[in-house]
Amino acid sequence: MIFALDAIDTYYGESQALFGVSLEVAAGEVVALLGPNGAGKTTTLRSILGLTRARRGSLHFDGKDIRAWPTHRIAQAGIGWVPDDRRLCPTLTVARNLSIALKRSRFRPWSMKEVCQIFTPLEHLMERDAENLSGGEMQMVAIARALLSSPGLVLLDEPSQGLAPKIVQDVLATINRLRDEGIAVLIVEQNPDTALAVASRAYILDLGRIVWSGTTAALSADAALRRRLVGT
Predict the structure, then answer these.
(1) How many structural domains compose the chain?
(2) Residue 144 lies in domain
(3) b/e map of 99-117 (b: 16 or more CB within 10 Å)?
(4) DSSP assignment, residue 129?
(5) What are the two backbone dihedrals, phi and then psi, of residue 224, each rounded to the nearest 5 degrees?
(6) Structure pTM?
């Protein structure tokens, strides 16, 4: 496994948000993290990135325990992040937002030309300020930015949120390409159908605990289980 959480506990102040959360992702595997609002999905991603540091447990990436690493070192090691609010620099152009993300890790490097081939509209948006983009355009830039960091693992937080169906399909196609390139993907989604369309396995969080894990095929086939665990 290229990435594994083992029994992490995460707190906000003295309030515990995650309770012994364990999960793993292999190279070239897409794994979904599902659950209702407030279940702890985004907190799990923040714990991986060192933004809200896990107080106990271990986080292993590429053979190293990264739990105590600062966020910038985690990113440099090859973990890319696409946050739910995209977090582009609003007053910088698309070209500048992408160029400052360029870095090299031990994983496969991506060029500006390659990301423009994946998201063809980017080529015509390079001189536009990020604050003047649509939601779908911002998401394209955010995913391209993650790829330019040469990731071995990409964390996607609500990648379909607020997007038109055509853009959602483009995002799903990109996730499939990442998998085919051997990149691990952990996708957090409020809409389970989106995640189940690309993931091979899933974990379901509720109140900060993993309450189910298994194949997405099993989850898709059991309507009663889906209603009970994710409400659909």
Answers:
(1) 1
(2) 3-230
(3) eebeeebebeebebeebbe
(4) B
(5) -65, -40
(6) 0.94
